[in-house]
Specification:
The complex is a heterodimer.
Chain A: E1 11-15, H1 19-29, E2 32-39, E3 42-47, E4 58-63, E5 66-71, H2 88-91, E6 95-104, E7 107-112, E8 120-123, H3 127-141, H4 148-155, E9 158-162, E10 188-192, E11 196-201, H5 204-211, E12 215-217, H6 220-239, H7 251-256, H8 262-268, H9 276-280, E13 287-293, E14 299-306, H10 326-345, H11 355-358, H12 366-374
Parallel strand pairs in A: 2-8, 8-9, 9-10
Antiparallel strand pairs in A: 1-11, 1-12, 2-3, 4-5, 6-7, 6-14, 10-11, 13-14
Helix pairs in contact in A: 8-10
Chain B: E1 16-27, E2 30-37, H1 40-45, E3 53-58, E4 62-67, E5 78-83, H2 87-92, E6 100-107, H3 113-116, E7 120-126, H4 134-142, E8 150-156, H5 168-173, E9 176-182, E10 192-193, E11 210-215, H6 218-230, E12 238-241, E13 257-258, E14 261-262, E15 269-271, H7 272-279
Parallel strand pairs in B: 7-8, 7-11, 8-9, 9-10, 11-12
Antiparallel strand pairs in B: 1-2, 1-6, 2-5, 3-4, 3-6, 12-15, 13-14
Classes of the chains: A alpha+beta, B alpha/beta.
Chain lengths: 376, 284
Amino acid sequence: MNLAKLPIGSFVRIQKCDLQSLVADLKQVHDRVVGPREIDAAIVYDDLDHVDQLPIGVTDHQDGGVYRLTHQSSDSHFDYVVGPQSLKGFLFPPRETVSESVRTDGKWEIQATETPVMRIAVLGPRACDLRALAIQDKVFLEGPYVDPGYQRRRDALFIVAVNCRRSVATCFCHAMDCGPAVTSHFDLALTEMDDHFAVEIGTPAGGLAIEATSWVPMSEVEVAHAKQVPAALEESMQGGTSARQMETGGIRELLMDNLEHPRWQEVAERCLSCGNCTMVCPTCFCSSVDEVTDLSGDHVRRERSWASCFTAEHSYMHSGNVRKTTRSKYRQWLTHKLATWQDQFDSSGCTGCGRCITWCPVGIDLTEEVAAIRGE
Amino acid sequence: MVDRQSITTANPWVTNLARIQGIDQELPNVATYDLVLEDPAAAGAFEFQPGQFNMLYLPGFGEAAISISSDPGKLTSLQHTVRVAGNVTTALSRLHVGDQLGVRGPFGSAWPLEACRGKDVVIACGGIGLPPLRPLIYYLIQHRETFGRVHLLYGARTPGELLFTNEFQQWRAAGIEMAVTVDLGSDDWTGDIGVVPLLFHRLHLDSNQTIVMTCGPEVMMRFVIFEALARGIDPESIYLSMERNMQCAVGLCGACQLGPKFVCKDGPVFTYEQMEPYLMVGDL
């Protein structure tokens, strides 16, 4: 295998029908290949045996509290944007055992759990979700303590990213400087053209994976043409109504200097405190740990599961819950996501994916809340 | 600058087993548990700085973040002074000498030993806020010549709720200037009555030479800080120990956030300069 043929950053073209050969090859070396599937009227990640299972010809309509799919007779493989799931669940499982205790003859033994790692290849993540991956890497891998399970799953993850060529009304990756062009954190990146895919090689592993497929090199003109796809989308997102807008200049000070702004109360009157925004957010990382025991009490697992700052338990202390009101919970969520995240991890916690807007049952829109606090 | 833990790649969920070597029932609802780590290697490697905490684990009940209340120079056992408050501490209160529990730690930032060098020190604490400061008191006594005057201001609701009273004599003899107050006196109480921050009124502090450290109910700490600031002490010379819900203790679970800070890994000991923007905001 001649790796030099496909250096990192190079582009090749594959016929649309050859995407299946890539999927088949990935299945050879991974425990699971997952990709976007239409299930229960939403685009979700699920096991992909064949590219025919992709939501070909499907487009989505998203807005505050609105998600609808439309079927068209087209061979477009990826003209929907993000569904409710991101990469988060593959690396930071919704529920995971962190330790197990066994009591024998009155004596405990406690073991930290090392769940066997599934080697997963994911087809379909967009630029916003790759940025979310980078953000979660910072949380779980680059602090004073490393999350061992995340580390092992992350090392085993293979990513075939996709450049978006359309946006929905809830998208604002351009405003968060996260997209729509895929620029890093991928092994391969696809750009869907009229009759083929342009494939950018992101890693040596990506180069190896595409080697086995039938590919042809791309000319500079063809590469420029492929790069124009997300570039054109970005231009249209900046221009108008095909995306949300958010002014991020000085946003940390804006929010932290306005912790008593009346808008927090106003949004609290609409917010149901359901936590949907935190569940669909690709960067929200809060968790709680529960004890799970058998009836004898001799076998105990500690299970870590996704938690939400919108619950009462999240801020529970013996002296009472710190954040008693929806106002304080929403304020915690938004200020963490957009402001204090910068202190903690040197970046925003928001990628502009828009999921929190779409999946909010009452359509609360963080871009609107920020604009209101800004006085617009 | 608050001391920070160095980076570690060890699995943060590894829990060491410990055996309860002794239980001192300090008050009806407060006991000090003297713990010995069972694994000799873990016991030998264990070190902590005054102000740090452990996660004490009772399988089936969960974990509680409890500061270490013993002498950092005596590592043969580790003491934790615990008030019965929730699920885990209630279960802990039912254990006996010889029983096992899990220990993860130590975690968090420490009291600023370096910054205190050559300075006068005011320790102001209330109720269960004294145990996290006791390792510091031991340290100050052992290195007494390194520090200027050392004041300990301590208060409890009633005389019967004062902790570690059997050590007060020793602490005074070692050069700790103590002032003890209670909210509500009793027939045989001849000491002060009133809240801890009021004790500042009888101190003559050199504002440039004084470090203040406080631990106790947040409302008490706010007024301690108010009194310290009123005496010209810089916000960066005032240290406080915060408490929040903790699920992981290593900055991964998000539960203990207070503004931009994770109380578990950035704290629990902060300077007032760090906490100033957040401490007075309700429900943050």
